[in-house]
Amino acid sequence: MSRSAGIIGTGSFLPEKIVTNYDLEKIMDTHNDWIVERTGIQRRRIAEKDVAASDLGVKAATAALEDAEVRAEDIDLIITATLSPDMNFPSTACIIQEKIGAFNAAAFDLEAACTGFIYALTTAKAFILSGQAQKVLVVGVEVLSKLINWEDRKTAVLFADGAGAAVVSGIEEAGIMSTALGADGKGGKFLYMPAGGSRMPATRETVDNKLHSIVMDGSEVFKFAARKMAEVSEIAVRKCGMTLNEIDYMVPHQANIRIIQNAAKRMSIPMERVYLNIQEYGNMSAASVPVALDEAVKKGYVRNGDNLLLVGFGAGLTWGAAVIKWNK
Ligand code: UT7
User: Fold this and answer.
1) Ligand 1 pocket member 288 (CB < 6 A)
2) What distance lies between CA 142 and its chain's CA centroid?
3) Is 192 in the pocket of ligand 1 (CB under 6 A)?
4) If residue 137 lies in a helix (H) or strand (E), which one and from where to where?
């Protein structure tokens, strides 16, 4: 059995189509200035009509496998974190498994909204340390443009599409040193999709009333987000005997630049050591952290030996953090 679990490769994929805030001004009552000031978002990627989560997920997964120099048939588990799966079942993980030819892999989806990638990373580590897997492909993917009510400016300007992936392997060095997860179901009412499940199956009325799209009380989510990001990060660093001062680089969930700035301030982490791509991609929920991680690594912001902090929050409500000794 391996002593530890670490990320040995990352990949990401974004749809080509760019939609700017100015494009949105033409289709709804909103303004570039409002969006930039309140969120930090300038543009986002939107998938074409015929593109589903697995299509983006496969591209990110393939890139991560190449980066890790691992063959698809050597993967023994695929975990896909998503709230916008191809369909309710089979899982998007099974669809990705078939498309990449990972025939020796078990596969399942994990739903923890925007915290999904960190929940999935934690699960991958647990499978590896318990000897049930050696190489796990973790994919965070969303096609949120298809879950948006494009008449609701409060959500339509925020969410977007993309995919990120990581290959997690049993290793002997430090790797994923600790993770911490949390949830509070009382906050479920602040961010959810009312219809399409067993509580409210699809009917003509649910479609007419646009109940198959994201409903959010933004200010309630905003209130808990920065505080929880700081709290869970503190728990995660303490778990591996560190302090927040020892964090070299932070890759946060990209939901709102003000939330990220506030969280970084609470943790005394200067913004120069925080990766930001929200201006380019908006909020891609479960894809947000792995895309940011892949970019931060490929652009050289994260170096071998760095103590890296991944942290996120989202619907559920959920939150989570991972402390990683980067060594790829
Ligand atoms: O991944 C996790 C999921 N979600 C989040 O993390 C979201 C967390 N929340 C947020 O990021 C912020 O709460 C928002 C960006 C969603 C909203 O920012 P806010 O500063 O909390 O604005 P608000 O909701 O209090 O709205 C302020 C005003 C309102 O007008 P009135 O009532 O003051 O006249 C809104 O109607 O801004 C208006 N508004 C807009 N105006 C132009 C709301 N959305 C827009 C818009 N364009 N797109």
Assistant:
1) no
2) 8
3) no
4) strand 135-143
What's the CA-to-centroid distance between 146 and ligand 1, angstroms? 20
Q: What element of type H or E holds 141?
A: strand 135-143
Task: Reply yes or no on whether the pLDDT at 325 is more than 90.
Answer: yes
Band of residue 1 on the pLDDT scale cut at 50, 70, 90: low
Decide if 283 is catalytic: yes
CATH topology agreement for domains 4-173 and 178-325: yes
Q: Which superfamily, per CATH, for 4-173?
A: Thiolase/Chalcone synthase (3.40.47.10)
Specify the amino acid at residue 308. Answer: L
> Which amino acid residue places its CA nearest to atom 42 of ligand 1?
30
Consecutive H or E run containing 293? helix 288-298
- List the chain domain ranges: 4-173, 178-325
190-217 b/e (C-beta count within 10 Å ≥ 16 → b): bbbbebbeeeeeeeeeeeeeebbbbbbe
Per-residue pLDDT at 251 exceeds 90: yes
Residue 223 CB–ligand 1 contact under 6 Å: no
CB 104 within 8 A of CB 140: no
141 lines ligand 1 (CB under 6 A): no
Confirm whether 21 is a catalytic residue.
no
- Set 114, 256, 277, 307: catalytic member: 114
For the CA of 154, the closest atom of ligand 1 is 44
- Residue among 21, 256, 277, 283 flagged as catalytic: 283
| Assigned CATH topology for domain 178-325 | Peroxisomal Thiolase; Chain A, domain 1 (3.40.47)
> Using one digit for the tens of pLDDT, what is the confidence trace for 77-88?
999 999 999 999
Find, among 319, 297, 320, the residue nearest to 7 by Cα. 297
Taking only the tens place, the pLDDT of each residue in 26-75 is 999 999 999 999 999 999 999 999 999 999 999 999 999 999 999 999 99
